[in-house]
Each structure stands twice: as C-alpha cells, then as structure tokens.
Design goal:
Order of helices and strands: EHEEHE
Oligomer: single chain
Distance between the termini: 32 Å
Strand content: 15-25%
Strand order of the largest sheet: 3-2-1-4
Length: about 90
C-alpha cells in the first residue's frame, strides 16, 4: 500500500534551471518522506537521472502563466497540504 502523501510540493517553471537543481537537491536531504513533488514545465522534459529517486511527477503545461500552472498542480496533487515553490 502506498504511503499517504502529507505535502505536495508544486513547482511551476518554463525551462529546467540551476535553481531547480538546487531546490530538488535540498528536498533530497529531507528526512521526512511523506511528500510528492509536482513539476510543471512548459514543455515535456526528461527528469535527470540524479533525481529519479525522488517522488516526482511531471506535467507539461504549455506556455501558460504561473497561476494556471499552480492550479493544475493543485488538481494533480495527492497531498493534504500544498507548498508552492517557484523556481
């Protein structure tokens, strides 16, 4: 049975960046693991191998504004609490 997700961390962005690398690196250091990460890029992306161990879901959105990306992330989330982080 899958563990219940308490937090959904929703990250809207246009293109992959060093800031996103840093953010995901810090998430990896967390000892709390009842969370999911929802990435919302403009276009389809390939998750770098270094982050494949994290609970990440990717939903390409097309070129829409950040507010609409956040709404989509909230709809896709399974967590009780939502955390919005912009890259």
């Amino acid at each position: 049975m899958e563990q219940t997700k308490i937090f959904s961390i929703i990250i809207p962005f246009k293109n992959w960046s060093e800031d996103l690398d840093e953010c995901l690196g810090h998430l990896r250091q967390q000892t709390f693991d009842a969370y999911e990460v929802i990435l919302l890029p403009d276009a389809k992306i390939q998750l770098p191998d270094v982050f494949k161990d994290l609970p990440i879901a990717i939903f390409p959105t097309g070129p829409i504004n950040p507010a609409l990306k956040r709404d989509l992330g909230a709809e896709k989330s399974m967590g009780r609490y939502l955390a919005f982080i912009d890259d």
